[in-house]
Amino acid sequence: MKILTTIKKVVDVELTINVEAGAIVEDGLQYVMNAWDENAVEATVQLKENNNAETTMVSIGGGEDNTKIIRRGFAMGIDNGIQIDDPTLTEADSSVFARVLQKVYEKEGYDLIITGKQAQDTDNGQTGIMLAEYLAIPCVSNVIAIEVLDDQHISVSRLGDNGTEIVALELPAVVTVTDSINEPRLPGMRGLMMAKKKKIDVMDLSALGTSFEEVGGTALKSEIVEFMKSETREAGQKFEGDAADITAKVVDLLVNEAKVL
Amino acid sequence: MAKVLVIADIKQGALKGSTAELLSKAKAIGAEAAVVAIGSNLEALIPELANAGSDTQYIADDPGLELFSAGPYASCVVDAANQFGADLIWFSFSESGKAASPRVAAQLGAACATEITDVILNGDQVEIIRPAIANKVKQRVKINAERLVAVVRAGAFEATEGISGTENVVRLATPAADVKAVIKELISDATGEIDLADADIVISVGRGAKDQTGVDLIRALADDLGAGFGSSRAMVDGGFMAHNKQVGQTGKIVAPTLYMAMGISGAIQHLAGMNGSKVILAVNKDPEAPIFNVADYGIVGDLFEVVPLLREEIKKIRS
Ligand SMILES: Cc1cc2nc3c(=O)[nH]c(=O)nc-3n(C[C@H](O)[C@H](O)[C@H](O)COP(=O)(O)OP(=O)(O)OC[C@H]3O[C@@H](n4cnc5c(N)ncnc54)[C@H](O)[C@@H]3O)c2cc1C
Ligand SMILES: Nc1ncnc2c1ncn2[C@@H]1O[C@H](COP(=O)(O)O)[C@@H](O)[C@H]1O
Asked: Which alpha helices (H) appear in chain A, and where do they start and end?
């Protein structure tokens, strides 16, 4: 089985993010592999270990940080790495990324595409599902387990509104995975060293056989006009001391001040 | 006049309150509002769908639609959107909405926006507001496409009192089943407990509760209050709480009147699911726990000691 796994470089959400004049302040930001893509990579490597898959990852983006996340993917156990580095794509939306990924898919052909359920910078949760639409292949999102049935079929479990849905999928297909599917492995020293020597297949859009216009870049369906700070909650009253006293005090406040009990 | 199509949020045969919230917003922006209901055995819901504030009800009612399947579900929405001539297509915050919206957008060549919290109409120009980066920032987004498919974040819109509509039913053809993605089984998570989304008070348990004894202790408080009983991811991963109880970025988004975080540190992914609550109470033995940065009331203490005291105090005021 040939698996294509998508990984995105995202801003580290654990750090402070400042907004000034409608834009995110770049200074002081750090970049990491999207957490849900780490789950996608882990799921892929487990399929490789248990079912002999040939594994390829693709990341659309440029710069040193993007190279770093691809190296991390190698260190976790992915065989091949493709990087689509094209300066025109900096403002791209999920639909455009899905069109680019469609080209990557069509170049080689794969049996299974695994994406994260959502990118931590956009919080869109759209790219994998749109990719499947564009390729006209089946898709299951929010997946928590993947099991290979035979060469042409897998069974996946997804968390739906009414419980866990077990779906038989005909390949080729797209699945988007959520964080409860696995615990991503931490690459060891040796893996990281080996990953440094691996060759990344870097391409721009023309090398991929497409253009900015063809992937919808010149006709964006929506555009971010500005970023704003989120309303932050103020820390309220915090009580320390004798448990019985402070508990009685807080219940009194919930009843008489907040009026919520 | 803009035309809004709202996808009815139906769970276990019942229409969720979010449907009326979205329809109210549609009317508030001066749009014509229709609803599409997809499932099985929907007949009894039709008057309710109209009363929720819709003037046309597109109904896709077939035993084959009983279990959610994103392909046919999206086809029904596309069909209704085309018949109605919808400019704006709104899903409630749900796993089915998250799964179907990008498909509908791709098929209609529409823009797609998830977790929107507001819609602004300026003549023909549509803009939306949505959080991103785990709620750390908000985006204002200009829609260039003719149509917008959006998932509305839980709690973003309010239902207008006394809203009404008219019954005007249009039956939709049943789309073909997706033969390449076949639902084999649904392992239902229905427990009979109050749905977190509907609860006025939500009490969530975190790793601080340690094990089943701690969970049961806190559940008793939730039972006393008739509160929804939620969880951090740590207790779901630990096998103590069901997946559908998880509050946070990968779980449920809740905005109750009162949220109680019991032994929860306040990781950003957890906060993203509950920081829209009206009042937050946190119990944590670590005075430096980040949950205290968002809590209106904080009790620094051992939950095994504090929770029984809370139950006692609440019993006192309730009697
Ligand atoms: C992609 C991604 C998505 C995620 N999605 C979610 C999500 O949807 N929801 C979610 O919750 N998490 C989510 N997480 C996980 C999140 O980052 C945290 O790991 C998780 O919320 C921690 O749960 P916790 O607060 O219960 O545990 P911990 O962080 O371990 O905190 C336990 C707290 O209990 C306190 N405590 C210990 N003993 C006691 C006691 N006896 N009395 C009182 N207090 C005590 C401690 O001081 C501590 O603050 C996600 C993570 C990632 C990477
Ligand atoms: N620039 C990108 N490069 C590689 N994969 C991407 C990119 N953008 C999105 N994806 C994949 O699509 C998923 C969903 O992204 P989004 O639709 O932005 O939430 C991510 O978890 C990635 O797996």
From this structure: 35-51, 64-76, 94-108, 127-135, 189-197, 243-256
A239: left (phi over 0), alpha (psi -120 to 50) or beta: beta
Below-50 pLDDT ranges, chain A: none
Ligand 1, atom 14: closest residue by C-alpha? B269
What b-and-e string marks burial along A21-43, b requiring 16 or more CB atoms within 10 Å of the CB?
eeebeeeeeebbbbbbbbbbbbb
In chain B the domains, ranked by start, together with CATH numbers, are 3-171 (3.40.50.620), 201-318 (3.40.50.1220)
Confidence at residue B124, expressed as pLDDT on a 0 to 100 scale: 86
- Closest residue CA from atom 49 of ligand 1: B265
Please state which architecture CATH assigns to domain A2-203: 3-Layer(aba) Sandwich (3.40)
Q: How far is the CA of A67 from the centre of ligand 1 (A)?
A: 31
Atom 7 of ligand 1, nearest CA residue: B248
The answer to whether ipTM exceeds 0.85 is: yes
Whether the CA torsion A129, A130, A131, A133 is positive or negative: it is: positive
Angle at A124 between CA B19 and CA B159, to 5 degrees: 20
For residue A257, the distance in angstroms to the closest alpha carbon of chain B comes to: 11
Nearest 5°: the CA angle A125, B229, A159 is 30
Partners of B296 on chain A (C-beta within 8 Å) are: 233, 236-237, 258
> Cβ of B275 and A233 within 8 Å?
yes
What is the per-residue pLDDT across B199-256, written as a single tens digit (0 to 9) for each?
Answer: 999 999 999 999 999 999 999 999 999 999 999 999 999 999 999 999 999 999 999 9
Which is more confidently placed, B165 or B124?
B165
Q: What is the pLDDT of residue B63?
A: 97
pTM assigned to the model: 0.97
Distance (Å, rounded) from C-alpha B251 to C-alpha B269? 9
Contact A46, A255 (CB under 8 A): no
